[in-house]
Amino acid sequence: MPLADSSLACALHAAAAAVAEIIAGRNLNEALAGLWRERPSLPPGQRGAVQDLAYTALRRYGRDDFYLSRLMETPLRDRPAHALLLVALARLAARPEEAHTIVDQAVEAAGELAQGRYKALVNGVLRNFQRRRSELEAAAGQDEAARWQHPRWWIDRLRHAHPGDWQALLEAGNGRPPMTLRANRRRVAAADYLGQLQAAGLAARLLGGDAILLERPVPVERLPGFADGLCSVQDAGAQRAALLLDVHDGLRVLDACAAPGGKAAHILECAAVDLTALDADAGRALRVSENLLRLGLQAHVRPADCRETDAWWDGRDFDRILADVPCTASGVVRRHPDAKWLRREQDIAQFARTQGEILDALWRVLAPGGKLLYATCSLFPEENGRQVAAFAARQEDCMRLPIAGMPELLLLPAEEHDGFYYALLEKQA
Q1: Mean pLDDT, to the nearest integer, of 255-281?
Q2: Which are the catalytic amino acids?
Q3: Closest Cα partner for 384 from 346, 364, 419, 410?
Q4: Average pLDDT over residues 312-320
Q5: Does residue 354 surpass a pLDDT of 70?
Q6: Domains defined along the chain, listed by start
């Protein structure tokens, strides 16, 4: 008999399918999108449960995979079964009072894998975990990857780059992200939208600018006027970009790596500019267009690699350029927990090369006297300060502009925002 769509067994099975994709090297967002296509009958509430299970399992992957290495004599090579155990262990850690139900439902979910071959294994491993929990937790405390739930190389990098903050950064990376909204100032002031939220029974507070922090995350369907473009979901740290870019009416602006379009939309909400938005992936560029449409905003959206200027540039310089470049996403891992397991240490150098290529290409299309805002959601210096310093050394006409009296802005993950880096560069006339 198939698993009931509303059952915990179904949620565990579906979340395990997504986690198995991550173990295989796939992006979590893509894995979940594929899962929804394969299982259209899943009700919205169950989709939320599946997503929460998958995210929690990935945040805890370092610890729970350590437990499995101690609970099993040989590694389990069946990826879906391995993923199911990870999801079930994460659930047991979160809700120990429901242990009996969780084990029972995990065994039922295992019945859908390999003709039920792993039911006894799942049952035995989970019950053994319950018996040995204290012992295993003590052992995990002595293993860095298990204790901090990050890869060892990631831990070492953060310890070296942020000697006073590395432990707090790792703890933040394992937490749940805040849900922050951006009021569409073309339609409603932030203070007025806060009133609408409160009238709808949603506790929230102003953070400054257009940002509003919700006390608890909610589905966007519950946000007043969301479908009509009154607000967007955007981290408060990410909302700094449009303000730092210093846009005003009449400017020609480029968002060079625009997807999913939050920063481009905020720029258009701040000023009546002629904005071109690029993204190398056609599907992601389409998402930019869809988001702008919901907000009632217009831009020239093109699927293009910003480095290949001959393919998309019309020869007219831009007054402002936002370069929110691809990076390791080390500042937003609580929002994208798959990133810390998908990334490899050598990826930092590859991202740094790409970032340098983007800066060199975009500088050619920036008008004299124009400003370029370099942005990442990374905590690693190779992608941030070192990258900008190397670029400024290559370009004689590049002047670094201060941000709040400092040469750059590094936002470390905090209760109110994720981790971001910004540097503002001006092209000398």
Answers
A1: 97
A2: 377
A3: 410
A4: 97
A5: yes
A6: 8-146 (1.10.940.10), 150-175+236-429 (3.40.50.150), 179-234 (3.30.70.1170)
- CB 123, CB 107: distance < 8 Å: yes
Model confidence at 429, pLDDT cuts 50, 70, 90, reads confident
Which pLDDT band holds residue 9 (cuts at 50, 70, 90)?
very high
Global confidence as pTM:
0.94
Instruction: Spell out the SS3 assignment of the chain.
Output: CCCCCCCHHHHHHHHHHHHHHHHCCCCHHHHHHHHHHHCCCCCHHHHHHHHHHHHHHHHCHHHHHHHHHHHCCCCCCCHHHHHHHHHHHHHHHHCHHHHHHHHHHHHHHHCCCHHHCCHHHHHHHHHHHHHHHHHHHHHHCCCHHHHHCCCHHHHHHHHHHCCCCHHHHHHHHCCCCCCEEEECCCCCCHHHHHHHHHHCCCCEEEEECCEEEECCCCCHHHCCCCCCCCEEECCCCCCHHHHHCCCCCCCEEEECCCCCCHHHHHHHHHCCCEEEEEECCHHHHHHHHHHHHHHCCCCEEEECCCCCHHHHCCCCCEEEEEEECCCCCCCCCCCCCCHHHHCCCCHHHHHHHHHHHHHHHHHCCEEEEEEEEEEECCCCHHHCHHHHHHHHHHCCCEEEECECCECCEEECCCCCCCCEEEEEEEECC
